[in-house]
From TrEMBL:
Cofactor dependency: Mg(2+)
Subunit structure: Homotetramer.
A Pfam family: PFK
GO biological process: canonical glycolysis; fructose 1,6-bisphosphate metabolic process; fructose 6-phosphate metabolic process
NCBIfam families the UniProt entry points to: PFKA_ATP, PRK03202.1
Residues that coordinate or bind ATP: G14, R75, C76, G105, D106, G107, S108
UniProt keyword list: Allosteric enzyme, ATP-binding, Cytoplasm, Glycolysis, Kinase, Magnesium, Metal-binding, Nucleotide-binding, Transferase
Protein name: ATP-dependent 6-phosphofructokinase
Alphabetized Gene3D superfamilies for the sequence: 3.40.50.450, Phosphofructokinase domain
Lineage: Bacteria, Bacillati, Bacillota, Clostridia, Lachnospirales
Amino acid sequence: MSEIKTIGVLTSGGDAPGMNAAIRAIVRTAINSGMKVKGIQRGYAGLLENEIIDMDTKSVSEIMRRGGTILFTARCKEFETPEGQAKGAQILRDNGIEGLIVIGGDGSFKGAQKLAGLGINTIGIPGTIDLDIACTDYTIGFDTAVNTAVAAIDKIKDTSMSHERCSIVEVMGRNAGYIALWCEIANGADGILIPEKGDFNEQDLIDTILSNRQKGKTHHIVINAEGIGHSNRLAKRIEVATGIETRATILGHIQRGGVPTAKDRVYASTMGAYAVDLLKQGATNRVIAYKNGNFIDFDIDEALSMTKGIDEYQFLISRLMVMY
Ligand SMILES: Nc1ncnc2c1ncn2[C@@H]1O[C@H](COP(=O)(O)OP(=O)(O)OP(=O)(O)O)[C@@H](O)[C@H]1O
Ligand SMILES: O=P(O)(O)OC[C@H]1O[C@](O)(CO)[C@@H](O)[C@@H]1O
Ligand SMILES: [Mg+2]
């Protein structure tokens, strides 16, 4: 096994607060081990355009407290084709990059898996606000995103209470209801709609709102995940069915930005250093995970074959809490 001399790092898919902490840890750990580090800008799209820069210890100074990713990110259809992947692997080789760390979500890991098959040593770091990666209990950015959403819903509650209204709040999560679930438990709400429980009964939600109103509750919150969507239409239906003035708020990309929490900075830094250690050991096609209080790694094939549902116990708690 020959030692890796140059590694690359890229961020891909939706950005997530804490990605910069991971980049900083990767650059400094690798340089400390005598390796060179190259940053690939704009994810796989930038790789295919050869947008590659040299990184040194100073280039990652003062980035940890910034949201987003200093390497930019993108989604790239071309990279989903075998031709795109072969071109990407060749560009990495042309730049002397023998090991690649991919910070992103499940889609990004599929790209890393393909590059591993083409002889590039790859390591994935879970970076997504959605928390929708099955092999890990933690993904970079979820903690910051959910705290942003919780703070926003607290504010919506103030005005909803003053006007004695019902508020539908749509949070991010295309295929995943974790942000919604945490908000329902952290903020308190009359109901939650998430893609994992797509068979929800709208009449039950209306009945809960009406029953809570009859018991004296003067405002109502419904947390709706993006994967269910259509919040404005839902608001109209609830208003008609209950007679309670109802407004919809879509929180949107505010949840993806902002100053990363301490947890996101520390866990992302740990995962970044761990990824470099794996490359040093000659590992490839691995993804880093946080399980039962430990940082561990899985084969990417195994990680991608796992499925993640919603935490049923947390969901049960959220159901019990709608009681007024
Ligand atoms: N099957 C695949 N093969 C190769 N590359 C892929 C594949 N699926 C996705 N990718 C690459 O990964 C990129 C990011 O994937 P995706 O848009 O699913 O985001 P993600 O990494 O899951 O992050 P998030 O869901 O948090 O935004 C895609 O634009 C594409 O370039
Ligand atoms: O910013 P974009 O590309 O529209 O992506 C939005 C998606 O990305 C995520 O924020 C995850 O990164 C999802 O929750 C959301 O559905
Ligand atoms: Mg994803």
